[in-house]
Amino acid sequence: MTKYLFILLFIAGISCSADFTSTHFYKGVNLVGTSQVQKSDIYDDLIKVKANSVSIVPFAYGNSHNGELTIKTNWQWWGESIEGSKELAKMAKERGMKVMLKPQIWFDGGRYTGNVNLESEEKWKRFERSYEEYILLHAKNASDLGLDIFCIGTELKEFVLNRPAFWTELIFKVKAIYKGKLTYAGNWDSYKLMPFWEELDYIGVDAYFPLSNSDTPTVDEVKHGWSGPIAELKEISETNNKKILFCEFGFRSISKCGMEPWVSDRGGELNLLAQKNCYQGTFESVWTEPFMAGGFLWKWYPNHENSGGPNCKRFTPQNKPSQQIISDFFSRK
Question: Is the predicted pLDDT of residue 15 greater than 90, yes or no?
Fold first, then answer.
């Protein structure tokens, strides 16, 4: 009996080690869900820029005051709905792309998800019941479609830290349904606090680290800005024997876009070079680290021909100088 137990433990150790040294590298984007039904040709331009992966992002809607979570609505956009997200994922798989399903929450008034902290046990229980229903529903969809990665949550710091037992049980229930890779998208300033990395396959990070205060940071400035985050990412990767997956990363095409990359409003001064340099510096530094499993840039619109462009200040790199940088680096690894 002892002999067989040793063999099983040895095999498990090999499996864990093999996962950490996996050769697959995710070169992906977070796809924007649209109000209109889409066809599979939306992936043509992604394939042209050498992307091999896509993150599909459905949404539920939360009330940050009473913990109610609405999973289905009559007014929800097709691409952010349950059925729309399934179709987008299915079409991506048919085109040979890896797919991460990443269900998220939009709280009332756009309140930041990581700060939502409910006031009573009753409200937490209400939220937990509806969130579990939401995640397990999408876990089944991910299983049925044979998707490559399932993300169990995005930037829910207070929820995780206040209710760790719930997350332990949720992960157990997800694993009973879905047999692919699991991750969680921890925000850049709190991912190290998450208590469950050993139970998941990738350490997921929404990598909006502040890198430079310059209006137009040089590539070298951006690379220098990554030195601190790289050390932290390497440490947590080695401690948990897991690779790092950037569930989100990106920059707006404005001046100082490397200072607070998480800011998503539409202000700022148009600066295409700043965005390009931030992407290039990122790809030349952290992207090449051996602890990286790749990532999904934020974000990409299905209507490529009419998206982004030289006057667009938003995150998308489409039809901007950054698009060529992304294509170049997606082609290399």
Answer: no
Which pair of tokens denotes residue 239?
Answer: 């401690």
| Six token digits for residue 284 | 């030349």
How far apart (Å, rounded) are the C-alpha atoms in residues 268 and 256? 8
User: Which amino acid, residue 39?
Assistant: K
At 326 the pLDDT is 98
* C-alpha R_g of the chain: 20
How does pLDDT run across 290-311, given as a tens digit for each residue?
A: 999 999 999 999 999 999 999 9
Domains of the chain: 25-332 (3.20.20.80)
Gap between the Cα atoms of 165 and 171, Å rounded: 10
pLDDT for residue 310: 97
Strand segments (E) across the chain: 26-31, 53-56, 59-62, 69-70, 98-101, 104-107, 149-154, 181-187, 202-206, 243-249, 292-300
